[in-house]
């Protein structure tokens, strides 16, 4: 649990939630993030070549912690334990929790309800991804959950943007947010790489 919290604190204020269209796109973003000294990246398993993308980031960013997101089964968890620094799931699974403990892998399960939160806390978790944050109540939901569960920390993800992420970070229970808006598309990289680089440097130096 402490490792998971340290991971979120390291990622603050925003952990990039990265989904790429191609290996070339992943490489270009990894080089950009390396130049900007982004401390933590979550690479989602939403592309057939996602594991190769994880390796690209590990190779390009040896100073950073590279995690695997959208982990939903045993096979993915075991591979992530070997190839990444931490694991994030969209929901909670007791089986994945057990595997994470056995492999000493920092694991951040997802929750959307108080019942899921209680089930995960029974497995000794205190650090959670709140997903899909905006769709299930956003800031108001996290405030509500924080009252009966003051010892937990959240990384809200889903529907969070440059326009509203400060609202989440203002909550004491939010260690960082997960955001895809800081991961430029291939077109955006071609149009304004320097603009994204400046934005990232400002974000992580503040």
From TrEMBL:
Family under the similarity heading: Belongs to the KHG/KDPG aldolase family.
Pathway field: Carbohydrate acid metabolism
Enzyme Commission numbers on file: 4.1.2.14, 4.1.3.16
Stated name of the protein: Bifunctional 4-hydroxy-2-oxoglutarate aldolase/2-dehydro-3-deoxy-phosphogluconate aldolase
A single MF term (Gene Ontology): 2-dehydro-3-deoxy-phosphogluconate aldolase activity
Enzyme class, UniProt record, top EC level: lyase
Keyword Thylakoid belongs to the record: no
Gene: eda
Keywords: Carbohydrate metabolism, Lyase
Record's subunit section: Homotrimer.
UniProt superkingdom: Bacteria
PANTHER family in the record: 2-DEHYDRO-3-DEOXY-6-PHOSPHOGALACTONATE ALDOLASE-RELATED (PTHR30246:SF1), 2-KETO-3-DEOXY-6-PHOSPHOGLUCONATE ALDOLASE (PTHR30246)
């Amino acid at each position: 649990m402490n490792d998971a919290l340290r991971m979120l604190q390291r990622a603050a204020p925003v952990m990039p939630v990265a989904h790429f269209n191609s290996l070339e796109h992943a490489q270009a973003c990894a080089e950009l993030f390396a130049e900007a000294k982004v401390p933590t990246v979550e690479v989602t398993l939403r592309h057939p070549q996602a594991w190769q993308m994880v390796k690209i980031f590990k190779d390009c960013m040896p100073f950073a912690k590279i995690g695997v997101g959208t982990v939903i089964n045993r096979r993915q968890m075991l591979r992530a334990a070997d190839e990444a620094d931490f694991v994030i799931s969209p929901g909670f699974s007791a089986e994945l929790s057990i595997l994470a403990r056995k492999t000493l892998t920092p694991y951040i399960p997802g929750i959307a309800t108080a019942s899921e939160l209680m089930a995960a806390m029974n497995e000794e978790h205190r650090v959670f991804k709140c997903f899909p944050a905006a769709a299930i109540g956003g800031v108001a939901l996290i405030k509500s959950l924080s009252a009966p569960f003051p010892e937990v920390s959240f990384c809200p993800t889903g529907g969070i943007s440059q326009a509203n992420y400060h609202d989440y970070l203002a909550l004491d229970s939010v260690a960082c947010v997960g955001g895809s808006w800081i991961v430029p598309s291939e077109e955006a990289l071609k149009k304004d790489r320097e603009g994204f680089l400046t934005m990232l440097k400002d974000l992580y130096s503040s």
